[in-house]
Amino acid sequence: MRRWKCIRISAVTLCILIVSTIFVGHSAGAVPRSENPHDQDRGVSNLNERILEGIHLVYDRRFPEAEEIFREVIAQSPALPAGYFYLAMVSWSRLAAGFWSPGNVSEFKKRIDTAIEKAEARIEKTDGDSYDFFYLGGALGFKGRFELMKGRWASSYFLARDAIEALDICQKLDPDNKDVLLGLGTFDYYTARLSGFLGFITSFLLYKGDIKRGLERLNIAAREAVFSSIETKSMLLHIYLFLEQDFEKALPLSQELSGTFKNNPQFQLLKGVTFIRMNKDDRYRETVEELRQKGLESEDAPSAAMWERRARYLELIHDLYHDNYPRAMEKIDLLLASGDPVNDPAMIAWPILKKGMMYDLQGNRNEARKYYDQVLHMENASGAQFVAEKYMEEPLKQGSAAIGY
C-alpha cells in the first residue's frame, strides 16, 4: 500500500493521510453527507438506504439481487469506493457460502483491488475523509483475511499493521461511529487469542489484544452500529459458539440471525449446533424439522435438496458429538450420494472433512489424514481446506468445537 510523503504537511493532515486496514467482515461507513446535501436532515442518505438493502440481501444469500443494487450505487457515485467495496463483499460472501471455485476467487481478487484503487484515488485527490479511509480499511481487511486464510503471514502482518492506525484515525475523526468498533473489537479479541510465536510477534510488533475489551466493543457494535451490526452479530455468534463456548450467549444471536435471514441455511444450522452443545435435544430436533420444512416449501428442486442436506448435516454433527459413528457414516454417504457441485458444493467438501474427523475421533489417524488430504486436493473445497490443513498436522480431539463446523 502506498505511503504518502508528509514533509510539508501538518500533524493533523498526516493522521488523516495514514491509510490502513483491519480484518473486518462486511462493515463499512456511510457515503459522506457532503455529497448528498439533500439528505442531511434524514441522517442516512437514499444511497445509504440502498446499501443497507444490499447488505441485507447479501446475508440472505440473494447474491444476484445484491449485486444489482451495488452496481446501481457505482453508477450513481462512480468516484466513491462504496459500490466497488460492496461488489467485493458479494464475491467474498460467495466464497464464504462455499463457492470457492477458481473463477470466484479470481473475481474477488479483481474486485477487492478495484475497491482499494478507488479509495486510494479519492484520498490522493481530495485528502479523503473518514469514510474513504474506512472503505479502504475494509477493502484491505478483506484482502488481509484472504491472505491469512492462505497462510501468507507476512502479507497479512503488513495489512494488519496498517489496520491499527486506520481504525484509530477513523475513531478520532468520528468518535460517534459505532461501526468502527467491529474492527477494533475483532483485533482486540483475535490478537489476544493468538499464542506462541505468532502471539509474541503480534503483541511485540503490532498490537496487544484484550479479550474482554474486544468482546465489549463487539457487543456495542452489535447493538448500535448501522452498517456492521449484522456482521458483528455473526462474528459474536461464532466467537461464543466455537471459541468461548458460551452457549447461553450464542443462542439468542443464532435465533435472531436465523429468524431474520430465512434464506440463509448457515444461521439455521448454527442454531441447531448451539442446541446440540446445550444438550437440548428436543430443540435440536425441532431445528432439524424446520430445515426439512424449508425444503418442502422450496419452489425448486435444487433449493429443496439444499435444505434437506443441511438437515442431514446437522444430524451428522449430532452423531459425531454423541460418538455414534455408524449413523454418522450413513449420513456422510447419503450427503455425498446427493451431492450437487454446482448449486451446493459445500455439502461435498464438508462431509468429506467430517469423514476424516470421524476417523480421528476413533483413533484411526492414517485413515483420517487420507480424507483431509482429499479435501486439500479438491478444486472447490468450499473453505473446508483450511480446517483440513489444521487436522493434517494434529488430530481432532473428542468434544472439539470444530466438530460443529
Can you give a write-up of this model?
It is a single chain. By secondary structure, this protein is mainly α. It folds into two domains: 11-236, Serine Threonine Protein Phosphatase 5, Tetratricopeptide repeat (Alpha Horseshoe); 245-404. The protein has 19 helices and no strands. It has helices at residues 11-17, 46-59, 63-76, 82-96, 102-126, 130-149, 153-173, 180-193, 196-206, 211-224, 229-243, 247-260, 265-277, 281-297, 301-321, 325-337, 346-361, 365-376, 384-393. Helix 6 (130-149) packs antiparallel against helix 7 (153-173), helix 7 (153-173) packs across helix 8 and helix 12 packs antiparallel against helix 13 (265-277). It is globular, with a radius of gyration of 22 Å. The model is unreliable at 1-44 (pLDDT under 50).
Give the tags.
mainly alpha, disordered N terminus, Serine Threonine Protein Phosphatase 5, Tetratricopeptide repeat, 405 residues, 19 helices, 71% helix, 2 domains
